[in-house]
Specification:
five-stranded antiparallel beta sheet; Uridine Diphospho-n-acetylenolpyruvylglucosamine Reductase, domain 2; alpha+beta; globular; 14 strands; single chain; Enolase-like, domain 1; Uridine Diphospho-n-acetylenolpyruvylglucosamine Reductase, domain 3; 3 domains
């Protein structure tokens, strides 16, 4: 398959990219890593008249640590960077640990965090990871810059809070507490496939090993990643036991209205929600207990 004919530009600044998008409107699209857009072009599912390549904009690939300890990652940061960076391993270990489950190395070498978030596939890892970490998206357009919480960014199947002409420029991850543990589990039919169901979670413990907060995110089971506050509440204010983990996992299954498709039934996805939540929470509790 070959893509339809299109014009191609490579701006060197965010301002130039936004100006081009405003000039050409819906006839133009931004190109990041191309792992989703290029197949769509080849299958004629998309037919833009102009591709605005973001790969020559240095500001979109920058990674910084703010004064409050937040990690700020440019939207063009590759998946492979998160997988191999010592900075990420120290300040965002959930992302570092989860990257091995994202597609294959060839895809991780080219794919970007921003491209994945804006594509908003319900089975993708990045929207769930950002939600588990309570991250914020930095969106920039001709009218200025705004921040959108991860919980409000993914709106549904391939749908986000991006307004027409806006560009996701960075993702801000709050500082990682010292006694925070993480868990990540997913099931796919083949290595590198999108997840049938996945669970990402973080658990914070105090000095007495009591759970002060927890965030549990289920993805792949519905049309967008979903927090499970009812399940998380069963862990908070106590030293979580194996029974607490089992109850939280069962509550997550009860709270998620799983979708069905030709890959898996709703019942099977529901069972995966429970099993993977239990595994991810156990993993998070072990890593939090070890972080003294």
């Amino acid at each position: 398959m070959k893509p339809p004919v299109f014009d191609y530009v490579r701006p060197s600044t965010i301002a130039e990219a936004l100006a081009l998008r405003e000039e050409h409107g819906d006839d133009a699209v931004f190109l990041a890593g191309g792992q989703s857009l290029m197949p769509a072009l080849n299958f004629r599912l998309a037919a833009p008249q102009l591709l605005i390549d973001l790969n020559r904009i240095p500001a979109l690939s920058a990674v910084d640590v703010d004064g409050d300890g937040s990690l700020v990652a440019g939207a063009m940061c590759r998946h492979r960077f998160f997988e191999t960076s010592e900075l990420v391993a120290e300040r965002l270990p959930l992302a570092s640990g989860a990257m091995g489950s994202l597609a294959h190395v060839a895809v991780r070498n080219r794919g970007t965090i921003g491209g994945s978030l804006c594509h908003a596939d319900p089975s993708a890892e990045w929207p769930a990871l950002c939600l588990a970490c309570d991250a914020a998206m930095v969106l920039q357009g001709s009218r200025g810059t705004r921040r959108v919480a991860a919980e409000d960014f993914s709106l549904g199947l391939f749908t986000t809070a991006l307004a027409p002409g806006e560009l996701l420029t960075a993702v801000v991850f709050p500082a990682w507490p010292r006694r925070r543990g993480w868990g990540f589990q997913e099931v796919s039919r083949r290595l590198g496939d999108f997840a049938l169901v996945g669970v990402a979670c973080v658990v914070d413990l105090d000095t007495d090993d009591e759970c002060t907060s927890a965030r549990i995110v289920v993805f792949g089971a519905t049309d967008r990643p979903a927090l499970q506050p009812a399940a998380a509440s069963l862990l908070q204010g106590r030293r979580p036991s194996d029974d607490d983990v089992r109850r939280a996992a069962a509550r997550a299954r009860d709270e998620v209205d799983c979708r069905f498709d030709h890959h898996a039934s709703a019942e099977y996805r529901g069972r995966l929600v429970e099993a993977l939540t239990a595994r991810a929470l156990a993993q998070a509790l072990r890593s939090a207990a070890a972080a003294r």
